[in-house]
Each structure stands twice: as C-alpha cells, then as structure tokens.
Amino acid sequence: MIGLNLIYPAAGLTFAAFALLALRDRRFGSGAFYALIATSFFAGDLIGDIGNGVLVLALVALGGSGAMRKSPPRDDRPAPRGNGLFVPALVIPATALIGTLLFKQLPGLVDPKQATLVALTIGVLLALALCLVWLRPSPVTPFAEGRRLMDDIGWAAILPQMLASLGAVFALAGVGNAVGGVIGHLIPGDSLFGAVLVYCLGMALFTMTMGNAFAAFPVMAAAIGLPLLIGAHHGNPAPIAAIGMLAGFCGTLMTPMAANYNLVPAALLELKDRNGVIKAQIPTALPLLAFNVLLLWAVLR
Predict the structure, then answer these.
(1) CB neighbour list of residue 277: distance below 8 Å, 6 or more residues apart
(2) Rounded to whole angstroms, how far apart are CA atoms 180 and 281?
(3) What's CA 277's distance to the chain center, in Å?
C-alpha cells in the first residue's frame, strides 16, 4: 500500500540533494541543516525517540547560531517564458485534487490517511518531469533553485512542524487542564458569552505565542472548549472547533512566531521593515477576531 513509503523517501532525496549542493558550495551550516532533515526522513524510525530529539536539538542549534546564510543573488537566470510557466504550478494542486478523489475509488492501493499527501507528492513529481521535458534544464537545476529558495527561507521552513509538535507535547503534558484551572476563574458564573470570549481570545493569544493555531487548539480545547462550551453549555463540537481555529488564525496574522507566514514573505520581498507584513494585517485580524467571537456566541445560543 502506497503511503509514507513514497512521501518520506521523496522528501529525503530532495533534502539530501540540497545538502550535497550546499556542501559543494562550501556552505557547511546549510549543508548540515539539510542533511539532518534528510536523515529524519530516511531513518526517523530507526534512530528512535532519543535520536530524533537530539536531531531536533541539532537543527535548533544550527538555525539559532546563524550558520545558515542566504544564497547570493543570481544574474544568469533564463528569460521568462510567459504565462505558460503557470502550467507546471497548476499541475500540482490539480493532481492532488484528482488523486485524492480517485484513490477513494481504488481501495487497497493508497493508505486512506495519506491519500492527499501521496497525490500531492505525485503532482510535484509530474510537474518536475514536465519542466525537465519542456524547458530542458540541467537535471541539477531544479534542486539548485530549490536549495536557493530554502536558503532564503532558512530555519523558518521547519517551524510549522516544530510548533505543531509543541502542541502535541502540551496536550500530553496536561497544559490545557492547567490553563483551564487558571483562566476558568475569569469567566463569570455560567456565562456563555464569557466562555466564548475567553476561548476565542485564548486561541488567538496562544497562537501568537506558539505561532501555530494547530498547536494552540489542543490547549484551549482542553481548557475551555471541552469542559465548558461542550460539557457545560452542550455546544455542537463542529462550530466550536471550526470557529475556534478561525480565531486562532487571527492570531497567526499578528505574530512574528508565525515566521513562515509573516517573516519569510518580508525577507523574500526584501522589505525594509521585517514586521511590515504583520503591521499590514493587524487592522484585518482584530475585526475578524471580534466577528468570530460574536459568530460562535450566536451559534451556541
């Protein structure tokens, strides 16, 4: 059955190529960073929990030490080829959509839990093949350009995965219950609006702290969502989860911790103000957060 046995080797080979190209250019910090990521894809199951923990600490050390540097600008890129360049880019989402729907009709071929990721991986491979046939670059060029883009993004490329893992750690450690015990006193009596307000604000604030709404959700669900909104007020779990995540996304718009959304675009666009994206998004995020509070309150009344 096709699943992670396709996805992980494809990702591992990509980062291994990035590592070799970085080492060829004597960019040893970046090379070590990409080699560690490749190792996690190739041998994550073999090195165990302690080995993976040490690997993550090594990634953090490399990212925080400044050992990774941006690639120098290139002046030898080929001239643009018009709107046709959008075709390979559109192949990826189209394949992901069609593949996900098709795999459901072919039980036993693809792991149902990984169907979308498998289809996405196939889409990337098809787009790469199309570009190689159409544009006829050197086979190394796609990986060299991918490595250059990764150099520009830097350590922030793996921040979403680390923050999502942090949310799982918080959930296992019982942080949500501890938070619920502390902020539960802020909610007056059996006030539904008070519970909704604390829940949505908590989602936004925890997202701003951890940089990822998926990391904040287990905490606030255990603290407010399950015991109060669902348990005490008998709310429907579907809108509580959905609108809670939307409130968390409002926090994503206002924090540098969501580096892949807010700091990376500023770096790629070479903005003078590294927080310029955040400042532009705050006037949208705050009204949206207020709307989500009112929407969830209206749904649960």
Answers:
(1) 261, 262, 263, 265, 266, 271
(2) 30
(3) 18
